User: Fold this.
Amino acid sequence: MDPRKQKSLDAWLIEQAKAKSRQRRKKELPDDGSISINSLMDAVTIILIFLLMNFSTDPMKVTPHEKLQLPLSTTMLNAKEKTTTLTVAADGILVDDKPVVTIKNNKVDTSDPNTLTIPQLKDRLDQVVKERKELAAALKQNFKDIITIIVHGETHYRLINKVIYTAGQATFTKFKFAVVKGGQLKQKI
Amino acid sequence: MARKKSKFVEEVEDINLIPIMNLVLCLIPLVLFKTQLVKIGMVNVSAPKVGPASTKQPEEDKDKKPLGLTVALSKEGFLLKATGADLSAVFEGQGDASGVKIPMKTEDYSKKDGDVEKVTTYDYIDLYKKLLRLREMYEDDKLLTLTAEPELEFKYLIRTMDVVRYQFADGVKMDNIAELSEAANNSAYKKVEEEGEGEEATTSTYKPLWDQVTFAIVQ
Assistant:
């Protein structure tokens, strides 16, 4: 064989042997800087289990929002059944998550300041009661006159008064106020 | 001649975790959407009575007048009023014909960083003690009417309802608001045994203080 060819073949063989050795070393050492999918899998499984543990089966869901900060309470009662919900946020009133009236500076936009009834809310609640009564009659059940009121903690009592009065006018007799559990009595005024 | 042991080692292929990862990553947003990290509770309020009060006395107990207790919240503190009793006589030396005032209280509040701050709060401890005394005197009365200044924020009404709901257990320390708050958070309430039906002969419940609350509708 031509010595030059022999030399290049030797060099190639040495290079191959080195590459093989490098590969073997790579397999032996796991700490080579690459991400291990097993660790990621572990982390993701832990997150999934945590989320499943906190999985909400409550009939009512409230998403905390700047305009809807529920007051804290030490109550032990939970939301057991799905009822009509009336939400009084800082910027509006909603019935079953549908906006009814807007609120500005703790005052209802279009209501007469001298009356307790909020006309738009009364109309909407009457409609809801009518629908619920029809549904209850079709299912041969009794209509439940319970309303869950979700109120922003900084809402003024005057507005709460109006909302309760209007709900009472729409034949609701049992009121449940939604709160965040785990309250503190300490406060600054 | 002894046979040489084969050096052949079967290579086990790693499990392909990528499809599982895909599934799990799809599940996370779904579960996250349905997860509620804040625990929502309920506070029951009885329907307020609107219109003039009934002049008809209950048939069975004409002699004993109902207490008709009202707690009014203002920015100065609480005001206890009762239609069926003279509260200034019950709490001697306190209050007048308009009711018994419980003014705001200034307390030292220890912050997490160790600093002490002066905090002005409603005197929930005094309110609790007075309501407990009234409960002992008027065992059959159940309803408490809550009212507030038009500008007062709703959260204070909820906190007041927290204090008046149950009777705290004997020996619970309540020298300051922090202690009262801790007792309420730990549900350190007095328990009563109630006779039940079926397998559970007795059930244990918390002893109520003034747990039936209604809001006064101010026309």
The radius of gyration of chain B is 29 Å.
